[in-house]
């Protein structure tokens, strides 16, 4: 009993912090989304959501594509990483983490200069007599930006869960007659599901809600939900912005709830919580 | 057991970082035999097992299975199965699916699969546990799952790497009996690793004693115990007094200042030798009944017998006897010719089989006042 009380006490600053920076803002979002500019109660904001459904669908669609691409690239990479020698692991991990230490804006700007019609790639192609190929301001460029920026968040949880798979478990599977592919399908994959779930959440959530990447790499053609929210707030349409944020929040919570089904069993994989 | 060899290791050498951990292992295992690798930690037992399982490739030497060379053959293509020291069960599958794993990857038809899994579950006594998750099982139950998972695939050879090391003594004894009976009822070859000599002696048809990547001796448990080839084997298997001696001629050896009849022959004239006398083979008699004398240093009561450390000609012997002996007493020591075992000198000579340090340690450890005295004197000093 005593111990419980003291552990509550230790947690106190965090509860206060959580209240100020999480609970209060959420309540404020809720308040603004249910009121009009004069502070009177209204459901108009919710009704107006219909006009944004295309943007929402596009955001989910591009976010989903980026997540799937990240998973496809990261899974083998994380596997190779987890099976290589200690020194190789350290070097490769550093290379994976390195871009994360550079500001997101800078990284996105660099991609602009690479992809532009007069950019790095097209200049090179031009020297070879090919092109130019139009790349900037396409949905592909937006997805590329998402994949590039959020890939480490997929690799890390996958890598971390794969290093936890006991080597003798894999040997046991081989020993019982499982070929390389069978070991992958029947042992490594099922055991890495919690890592996959974490990775999906950690890539999908920021991809869906991004606004900078789509503005810089998608131009005006690919306005995502994040851009719209950004717009609403900068144009003083606070209440509609709050409503859109609320929708995004619900979407993200839903996604996390689904993914936590896979991580809940094995708390080691639940890196995001 | 048949006369056909199922596994032959020929001059196997394994190096890690320039260090040879197996230095030319030659070992033949007969179909249906229960062979135990016995040796101290780090002697290369697991490595030898992994050579057979296909998880380690020898730097030189050949591995034969049923007469065919199988170097380089992938583990999943070998008709051997391993029971790993930490079981290595699949945490994401229940008991039934763990056992069924080997059959599923080999595409055994569902009907046959069910029957075989049921039989295996029955054999290891796990009926009713099929739906349980692995992490809800006790160590002994997990062990049984590991055994069932291996034997259900009907391997020709089962490799067991210290399978009982993690179990408590009682369970361990039960599982020893159970494993042995499984081996006999299925008639498959067992290659078993342990560093428990009692386990090795009681379960095996053949014991292989290893040290530092070299096989010291291969033989039946009786051979290994009664006719150890060198001081290492003699000391590793049971308790032994190992004393310096000189072989005067066939059937006569001189040690502890006496010439004593023995049954060993074939040594050079006056060849220096190691003489092994097992503590339980020594008869304690009155001093005037034998030319060989000793002064009792200490006695420990062991239940069935007394264990005495006795100074014989400046060398400490261990003697186990049911006669009452007292510290400080002069006793006569009587040895029958077949109680004496003579061995050639080896690199291990002089390193084992002397109980002088043993007796001191035992004195200190078995004296309950020893620790307390030390603490008291410290406490007394602190008070002053
Ligand atoms: N992968 C490896 N890399 C480097 N050295 C190794 C490797 N595997 C084993 N060794 C070394 O080889 C030697 C023999 O190891 P092995 O595991 O065969 O011993 P063991 O007889 O099974 O010992 P134990 O009873 O402790 O299990 C040891 O010195 C060990 O450190
Ligand atoms: Mg070992």
Summarize the structure.
The complex is a heterodimer of chains A (273) and B (384). By secondary structure, chain A is mainly alpha-helical.
What distinguishing features does this structure have?
heterodimer; A: 273 residues; mainly alpha; MetI-like fold; B: 384 residues; alpha+beta; Rossmann fold; OB fold (Dihydrolipoamide Acetyltransferase, E2P); 6-stranded mixed sheet; 32% strand; disordered C terminus; binds adenosine-5'-triphosphate; binds magnesium ion
CATH architecture of the largest domain in chain B: 3-Layer(aba) Sandwich
| Largest sheet features of chain B | 6 strands, mixed
The total count of strands of chain A amounts to: 0
Spatial strand sequence of the major β-sheet of chain B: 6-7-8-3-9-10
CATH class designation of the largest domain in chain B: Alpha Beta
Strand content of chain A: under 5%
CATH topology heading of the largest domain in chain B? Rossmann fold
**Looking at CATH, which topology of chain A would you report?**
MetI-like fold
- Counting DSSP H or I runs of 4 or more residues, the number of helices of chain A is 12
| Whole-angstrom Rg of chain B | 25 Å
**Superfamily at the CATH H level of chain A?**
MetI-like
| Tally of helical runs of chain B | 10
- Highest-level CATH class of chain A: Mainly Alpha
CATH homologous superfamily placement of the largest domain in chain B: P-loop containing nucleotide triphosphate hydrolases
How many domain regions of chain A?
1
Q: What Rg of chain A is obtained from the alpha carbons, in whole angstroms?
A: 23 Å
Oligomerization state = heterodimer
Q: Uncertain spans of chain A, ≥5 residues at pLDDT below 50?
A: 266-273
């Amino acid at each position: 009993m005593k111990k419980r009380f003291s552990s509550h006490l230790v947690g106190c600053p965090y509860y206060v912090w959580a209240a100020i920076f999480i609970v209060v803002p959420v309540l404020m979002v809720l308040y603004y989304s249910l009121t009009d500019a004069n502070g009177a109660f209204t459901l108009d904001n919710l009704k107006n959501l219909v006009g944004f459904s295309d943007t929402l669908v596009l955001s989910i669609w591009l976010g989903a594509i980026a997540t799937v691409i990240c998973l496809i690239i990261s899974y083998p990479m994380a596997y190779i990483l987890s099976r290589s020698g200690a020194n190789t692991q350290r070097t490769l991990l550093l290379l994976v983490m390195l871009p994360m230490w550079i500001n997101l804006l800078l990284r996105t700007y660099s991609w602009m200069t690479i992809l532009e019609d007069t950019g790095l790639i097209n200049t090179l192609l031009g020297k070879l007599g090919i092109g130019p190929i139009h790349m900037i301001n396409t949905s592909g460029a937006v997805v590329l930006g998402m994949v590039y920026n959020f890939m480490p968040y997929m690799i890390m949880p996958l890598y971390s869960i794969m290093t936890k798979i006991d080597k003798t478990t894999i040997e046991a599977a081989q020993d019982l007659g499982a070929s390389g592919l069978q070991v992958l399908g029947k042992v490594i994959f099922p055991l890495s599901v919690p890592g996959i779930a974490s990775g999906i959440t950690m890539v999908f959530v920021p991809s869906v809600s991004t606004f900078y990447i789509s503005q810089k790499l998608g131009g005006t053609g690919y306005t995502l939900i994040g851009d719209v929210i950004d717009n609403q707030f900068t144009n003083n349409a606070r209440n509609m912005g709050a409503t859109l944020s609320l929708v995004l929040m619900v979407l993200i919570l839903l996604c996390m709830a689904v993914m936590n089904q896979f991580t809940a069993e094995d708390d080691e994989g639940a890196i995001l919580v | 057991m048949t006369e056909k060899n199922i596994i032959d290791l020929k001059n196997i050498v394994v190096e890690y970082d320039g260090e040879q951990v197996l230095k030319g292992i030659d070992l033949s295992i007969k179909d249906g035999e229960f062979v135990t690798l016995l040796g101290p930690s780090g002697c290369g037992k697991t490595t030898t097992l992994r050579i057979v399982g296909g998880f380690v490739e020898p730097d030189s030497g050949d591995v034969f299975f049923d007469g065919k060379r199988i170097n380089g053959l992938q583990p999943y293509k070998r008709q051997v199965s391993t029971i790993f020291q930490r079981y290595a069960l699949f945490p994401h599958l229940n008991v039934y699916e763990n056992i069924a794993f080997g059959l599923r990857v080999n595409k055994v038809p569902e009907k046959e699969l069910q029957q075989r899994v049921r039989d295996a579950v029955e054999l290891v006594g796990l009926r009713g546990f099929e739906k349980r998750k692995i992490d809800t099982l006790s160590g002994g139950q997990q062990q049984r799952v590991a055994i069932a998972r291996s034997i259900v695939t009907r391997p020709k050879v089962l490799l067991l790497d210290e399978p009982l090391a993690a179990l408590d003594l009682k369970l361990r004894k039960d599982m020893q009996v159970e494993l042995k009976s499984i081996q006999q009822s299925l008639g498959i070859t067992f290659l078993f690793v342990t560093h428990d000599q009692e386990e090795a002696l009681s379960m095996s048809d053949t014991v292989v004693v290893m040290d530092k990547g070299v096989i010291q001796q291969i033989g039946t448990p009786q051979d290994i115990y009664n006719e150890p080839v060198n001081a290492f084997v003699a000391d590793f298997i049971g308790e032994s007094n190992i004393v310096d001696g000189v072989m005067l001629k066939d059937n006569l050896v001189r040690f502890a200042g006496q010439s004593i009849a023995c049954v060993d022959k074939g040594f050079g004239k006056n060849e220096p030798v190691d003489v092994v006398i097992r503590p339980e083979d020594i008869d304690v008699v009155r001093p005037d009944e034998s030319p060989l004398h000793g002064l009792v240093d200490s006695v420990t009561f062991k239940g069935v017998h007394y264990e005495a450390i006795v100074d014989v000609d400046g060398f400490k012997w261990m003697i186990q006897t049911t006669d009452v002996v007292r510290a400080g007493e002069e006793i006569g020591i009587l040895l029958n010719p077949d109680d004496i075992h003579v061995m050639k000198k080896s690199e291990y000579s002089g390193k084992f089989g002397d109980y002088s340090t043993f007796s001191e340690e035992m004195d200190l450890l078995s004296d309950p006042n020893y620790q307390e005295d030390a603490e008291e004197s410290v406490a007394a000093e602190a008070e002053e």
